[in-house]
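[Help] Beginner question about ligand-bound structures

Sorry if this is basic. My supervisor gave me a protein sequence and a SMILES string for NAP and asked me to "get the holo structure". I don't really know what that means in practice or what format the answer should be in. Inputs are pasted below exactly as I got them.
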Amino acid sequence: MFDFAGQRILVAGGSSGIGLASAQMAAQYGAQVTIAARSPERLTKAVAQIGHGAQHAVLDLIDAEAVARFGETSGIWDHIIVTGSDVKIAPVRDLPLPDARQAFDSKFWGFYHLARSARIAPGGSLSVVAGFLATRPVAGRALMGAINGALESLVQGLALELKPVRVNAVSPAVVAGGMWSHMSQEDQAAMYARIGATYPAGRVGAGEEIARQLLLLAATGYATGTIVTLDGGASIA
Ligand SMILES: NC(=O)c1ccc[n+]([C@@H]2O[C@H](COP(=O)([O-])OP(=O)(O)OC[C@H]3O[C@@H](n4cnc5c(N)ncnc54)[C@H](OP(=O)(O)O)[C@@H]3O)[C@@H](O)[C@H]2O)c1
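Answer (accepted):
No worries, everyone starts somewhere. Holo just means with the ligand present. The predicted complex, written as structure tokens, is below.
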């Protein structure tokens, strides 16, 4: 389906969830994969899972100087996929302000930092995972909607500013695993069943489905400024 032979692909956030699925798939299709995230232990485990000579870099996307240094020293990438973020979700009046700011720092500014300094080959691509809440507000998730909306808008502006580098986003609804892994298996299963039943697809997404879409955007030279809402129909439900 894809041919990434000899291409350098960075997955920032590649030690878990959608990022790990993307890194695994890219490596299977021949890419030289590097994953970046904060925890060296999780990175080491993930690299072993990915195989195919995958490498890792310890990087906190919130640290603008560290990301700038990484951009200068890590060479030219064919494609970059950004899934790294660490956000707390709660209604605006319940979420402590420092947590709200941290969420924006992590998901929006983290991507911004990398977009600002990473070097990407002409015709190569930069993709981020935003979220369907950008266009389908849900009570209790207003901040996430705002962050995702800001990301989607940034992606389209960057597609103009960074051309011939292509810039795209995938916006899912709930995807199993990943950021929900702190919950017990039973609680996850109950949450996926309850929420999935409200989606026209009848279930929540799988990390591999989002990964495939991210790689498709990377592999499609005509795709830029593209936002793919891949949400099981959640945004029209
Ligand atoms: N899963 C869903 O239901 C869903 C739905 C819509 C959108 N999304 C979005 O999709 C993205 C991936 O979600 P996921 O479920 O795959 O999450 P996840 O499993 O929690 O993975 C997050 C990855 O990002 C890394 N990371 C977190 N903060 C970072 C930072 N400051 N700098 C560098 N790396 C960082 C994590 O490793 P370390 O902690 O070691 O740094 C991990 O590798 C997120 O942006 C999320 O908002 C997810």
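A couple of things worth pointing out: The CA atoms of residues 87 and 192 lie 19 Å apart. The helical segments are 17-28, 40-50, 64-73, 97-117, 142-161, 185-196, 207-219. Feel free to follow up in the thread.
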